[in-house]
Structure formats: C-alpha cells, structure tokens
Amino acid sequence: MWRVLVVLVALLLAVPGLGWASCQWMVDPGAIGDVISMMNRGTAPDDVVFQIFDNTGVQLGGTVSSGAIPPSGRRETTVGNLYKGAHLPNSAIQNTYILVTEGTGRETILQVNLSGGGSFQPEHFDSGFNQASNCDQR
Predict the structure, then answer these.
(1) Residue 56: HSE in the Cβ half-sphere, 13 Å Cα cutoff
(2) Which of these, 23, 9, 12, 4, lies nearest to 105 by C-alpha position?
(3) Which uninterrupted H or E stretch holds 38?
(4) pLDDT digits (tens, 9 = 90+) for 62-80
(5) How many Cβ atoms are within 10 Å of 124's Cβ, its own excluded?
(6) 122 near 110, Cβ under 8 Å?
(7) What is d(CA 99, CA 53) in angstroms, rounded to the nearest whole number?
(8) Residues 126, 56, 102, CA angle at the centre, nearest 5°?
(9) Sequence ranges of the domains in the chain
C-alpha cells in the first residue's frame, strides 16, 4: 500500500499545473570506481536521491540521498558507494541502471567521471514531460 501511495503522489506532482516536475537523470554505471559529481548552481541548498533499477524497471535496494548540497557547492560519490548504500552487491552493476532525482532547486548539474578516464553528462530529462524546461541543463 505504501508503494502505491508513493507512486500516486509522484505522478500527481509530475502533472503540469498540479505540482512540480522532478529533474532526473539516467546513469548507466560502468564500474564501482566511477565518480558521480553533483554541482549545485543555485542560490539555495539542493539534494539528489539515487534509486537503482534492474533492466525490467524494478527498483532494487534502498534509496540513497546525497544530503544537502550547499549553494554553489559540489558533492561527489562513487558508483560503488551508491550500491553499498542501497545494500546491493557490486556485481549488480552489470544488470542495473541508476535513476537520479533532484530536489526542488532545479539547478544541479550531474557529471560522471569514469574510473578508466574520461567523463560524460548523463541523459537529463524532466519527468513533467516539458522538454526539461524546468530543469537546468548544461
């Protein structure tokens, strides 16, 4: 029952005009040493939460929060730390993806630095289906 209520509230908040849309990213994890950087470009604290899903869309483990990221601040975590925080084995990386949802600030920029070198910005989308009009994209 609790999950149904959470899903209904999330859907309600994502409907334009009824609530606010969530800024989200999808991360395809490569290795436990990959670093996810969260940069808050806003003037208020913001946060992100991480959820790990299997390839069929079922959430595995718990939700992991970044904690408050101060204005103009930055926070980093590794993919391995996220899986550990969600109580999942590192071997789950091969068949899962990470959904990152931003708090209300809509000013956070996400970047993944690969342990083997290089970096990328994950695909970013607005769950309100407004072509990311309410989310900061760089």
Answers:
(1) 2
(2) 23
(3) strand 35-40
(4) 999 999 999 999 999 999 9
(5) 19
(6) yes
(7) 7
(8) 25
(9) 21-126
pLDDT of residue 69: 95
Reading the block at residue 129, the tokens are 């289906």
Reading the block at residue 110, the tokens are 């996400």
Question: What is the arithmetic mean of pLDDT over 2-17?
Answer: 37
Between CA 65 and CA 76 the distance in angstroms is: 12
**d(Cα 138, Cα 51) in Å, to the nearest integer?**
23
- Please give the CATH architecture assigned to the domain spanning 21-126: Sandwich (2.60)
Only one residue has tokens 């999808």, namely: 26
CB contact at 8 A, 59 and 6: no
Which of the 8 DSSP states describes residue 107?
-
Closest to 113 (Cα-Cα) out of 39, 22, 47, 23: 39
Cα dihedral 83, 62, 58, 112, rounded to 10, equals -40
